């Protein structure tokens, strides 16, 4: 079934005359007849009842009338969508990350990018970090946000630091620790721990978690696969967590206490190339400006 067959059917249904339909379509009457017969064969029904003097729609023809009009309307709408060349001009940019919390930090940069690039079409992907860096290697995304060194191997592209992030302890606001302006690792050894997956953490976080675990019993630990899950368990009172001070929504009722002596983390963007990618250059510049303004 094709749109020409549908046009033929609707034109014959309008005039109830094959000769006039052929004239309007600017084709021969046998060509119209062939299209109608082909359509009837495909639908396995008779659409018209023909005599030597009259042409009328069959009950099946009346039913198909609405379908034919709908299919042609969809076809015409699809054609119009792509008729204006200017409407097809877009500037895509695909950014990947492995943490939903990082997405909330992008709105400001994208808002300003939309002013610089009126045809900007961002695409945001959140996938496990093992898959994410493969997407970058295969150039399925333009850039990946993450902490330096989290890949566990050779960097999949060029790394550009966007900001330095302190390491903090998060705990309930009711916890006595919440009154501290900073805290040492030794002061946390008796606290129950909410641990994030070492394979998705910066090396500094993994090392600090290991030091706190020591020889303590399994009952002192709660394991989480993400920063968001850890924040929920801490808020619920299951323990404290050592996390980057980045990506935890500020509205959560959690105390955030810097860890004394912990090296700050490098958070940035991995990319394969900036050549020919003006939106990506703007994105990196604006993200760095946002970090400097904080």
Overall pLDDT score = 88
Major beta sheet, strand line-up: 4-3-5-12-6
Query: Into which percentage range does the β-strand content fall?
Result: 15-25%
Uncertain stretches:
none
Q: Please state the overall shape, judged from the principal axes of the Cα atoms.
A: elongated
* Strand segment count: 12
Work out the radius of gyration: 32 Å
What's the name of the CATH homologous superfamily of the largest domain?
Answer: Periplasmic binding protein-like II
The profile of the biggest β sheet is: 5 strands, mixed
- Helix content range of the residues, please? 40-55%
What does this structure look like?
This protein is 40% helix and 21% strand. The chain has helices at 3-15, 18-25, 29-43, 59-81, 100-103, 107-116, 129-137, 203-213, 227-235, 278-293; strands at residues 48-50, 55-57, 91-97, 120-126, 143-147, 158-165, 167-172, 193-196, 221-224, 241-244, 254-258, 265-271. It has ten helices and twelve strands. The protein folds into three domains: 3-81, Winged helix-like DNA-binding domain superfamily/Winged helix DNA-binding domain (Arc Repressor Mutant, subunit A, Orthogonal Bundle); 89-162 and 267-293, 3-Layer(aba) Sandwich (D-Maltodextrin-Binding Protein, domain 2); 167-263, Periplasmic binding protein-like II (D-Maltodextrin-Binding Protein, domain 2), CATH 3.40.190. The two termini are 61 Å apart. The mean pLDDT is 88. By secondary structure, the chain is α/β, with parallel strands linked by helices.
């Amino acid at each position: 079934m094709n749109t020409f067959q549908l046009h033929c059917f609707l034109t014959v249904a309008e005039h109830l005359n094959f000769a006039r339909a052929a004239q309007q379509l600017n084709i021969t009457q046998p060509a119209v007849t062939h299209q109608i017969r082909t359509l009837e064969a495909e639908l396995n029904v008779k659409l018209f009842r023909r005599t030597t003097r009259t042409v009328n729609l069959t009950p099946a023809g009346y039913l198909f009338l609405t379908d034919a009009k709908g299919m042609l309307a969809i076809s015409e709408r699809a054609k119009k969508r792509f008729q204006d060349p200017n409407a097809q001009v877009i500037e895509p940019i695909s950014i990947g990350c492995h943490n939903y919390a990082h997405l909330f930090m992008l709105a400001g940069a994208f808002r300003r990018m939309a002013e610089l690039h009126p045809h900007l079409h961002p695409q945001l992907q959140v996938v496990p970090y093992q898959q994410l860096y493969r997407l970058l290697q295969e150039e399925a995304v333009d850039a990946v946000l993450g902490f330096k060194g989290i890949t566990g191997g050779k960097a999949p592209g060029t790394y550009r630091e966007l900001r330095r992030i302190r390491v903090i302890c998060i705990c309930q606001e009711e916890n006595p620790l919440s009154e501290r302006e900073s805290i040492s690792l030794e002061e946390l050894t008796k606290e129950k721990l909410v641990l994030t997956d070492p394979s998705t953490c910066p090396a500094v976080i993994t090392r600090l978690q290991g030091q706190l675990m020591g020889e303590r019993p399994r009952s002192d630990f709660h394991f989480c696969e993400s920063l968001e899950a850890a924040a929920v368990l801490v808020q619920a009172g299951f323990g404290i967590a050592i996390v980057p001070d980045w990506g935890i929504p500020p509205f959560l009722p959690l105390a955030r206490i810097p860890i004394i002596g912990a090296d700050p983390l490098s958070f940035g963007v991995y990319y394969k190339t900036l050549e020919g990618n003006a939106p990506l250059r703007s994105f990196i510049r604006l993200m760095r400006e946002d970090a400097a303004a904080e």
